[in-house]
Amino acid sequence: MAAGIYIGSTAGYSGKNMVVMGIGLRLQKEGLNVGYMKPVGAMPEERDGILGDEDAFFVQDILGQDAPANLVTPVVVTQDFKVRAFSGQCDDLMPAITNAYDTLKKDKDVMVVAGSGSMYSGRYCNVDGIRVVRELNLQAVVIDRLHKELNYDYLVVLKDTLGDNMAGVVLNDIPPNFMNEVDGLIRPFLEKNGVKVLGVIPKDPLMGAIKVGDLAERLGGKVISAQNKSDKVVENFLIGTMQVENFMTHFRKNKNSAIIVGGDRSDVQLVALEGNCPCLVLTGNLYPNDIILTRSEVLNIPIVVVRDDTYTVAKKMEIILSRHKLRDVIKIRQGAQLVSSSIDFGYLKERIGLK
C-alpha cells in the first residue's frame, strides 16, 4: 500500500510547490513510483474541458503525471463554490477526496499530497489540511517560511493537534545571518517540544527572481527599450530617490537589483545603466531622455515605464518578488536541488514506512 506524505505550510506562498516537486523528483530518482494529488485547488483552470488547479497541472507536468484533473483535485474553489459554502450549502466533500486518493494510490509506492494555503485553509467547508491529514492518515511535512520571524508557536500547536501524523517541519528561505539563531535556539526549542526539524532550506536569491518581461507585465508597465533582453533576471530592487553619491554606495552592494526611479531622474538612471543593473523601472509614466534611451540600447539594459508612483511600485515589487511562482526550468532544477540537499530523506522515508 502506498505511503503518504502531506506537504502543508503555516501560510500561503511558503514554497509548497518547490518542496512537493523536490521530494517527488528525489523519490522518483530513487526508483519509486510516485503519485501526486492536490485535494483542494484554489486556482481554477480548465484543461480538456475538465476543471482542475493551475498549480496542480504544473506539478503534474514536472513529475510526469497524467491522472485526470477531477481525481488529482477533487475540490476546486471557484467563486460560486465560496458563495455556496459561506451560505451553509457545503456538502461533506471528504468522501470525494478519500475516493480520489484511494484510486490514485493503487499502483504507487508513495503519494505526495499537496496542501493549499495554510494548514487551516479550507476550514470553512471542512477540507482544511488538518482534516485531510487525519482522514487519509498521512504524514504531514509542514513548511514555515521565514517572513520577519518563524512561526515556532504555530508549529508546536500543530504538533499538539496532529500528534503522530506530523512527520516534521521544513524551515524555508533562511538567510545566512539567521542560521545561528535557527541552529542555536529555534531547532532545539522545536525538537524539545516533539517537533522534528526535517530540514532548513537556505535563502537563494534565484528562487525569488523574476524575468524583466514578466515583471513589466505584473507592474502593468511596458518595456520601451532593449526588448530583446527582457529575459534578464531581477532578484531584488533598489529605490533611486536619494542623492547620486548615496545611491552609488547602495547600488554597489546590490547586484541584480532593478532600479525604481522617477522618469525625470536621469542622473540616477545613468549611474544605474553604467553600473549594469538588470533593468530600470521608471515611474510616473515619464519617458527617459534620448541619452538614457541610447545608453540602454547600447548596454542591452531594458527600461520599463509604469504609471504608478515610486512608492506604489516598490510595494508591488515587494509582493511580486515574495510570491513569484516557480515556473522557470532553471528555478525548478535549483529548487529541487535545494530540497534534495536540505531535507533528511532517510528519516522521512522511515516515517512513512519506505525503509
UniProtKB/TrEMBL annotation:
Assembly and interaction partners: Homohexamer.
InterPro entries: DRTGG (IPR010766), P-loop_NTPase (IPR027417), Phos_Acetyltrans/Butyryltrans (IPR050500), Ser_kin/Pase_Hpr-like_N_sf (IPR028979)
One of the Pfam families matching this protein, by short name: AAA_26
Coiled-coil annotated spans: none
DRTGG domain ranges (all copies): 214-318
Signal sequence extent: none
Name recorded for this polypeptide: Cobyrinic acid a,c-diamide synthase
Organism encoding this protein: Desulfovibrio psychrotolerans
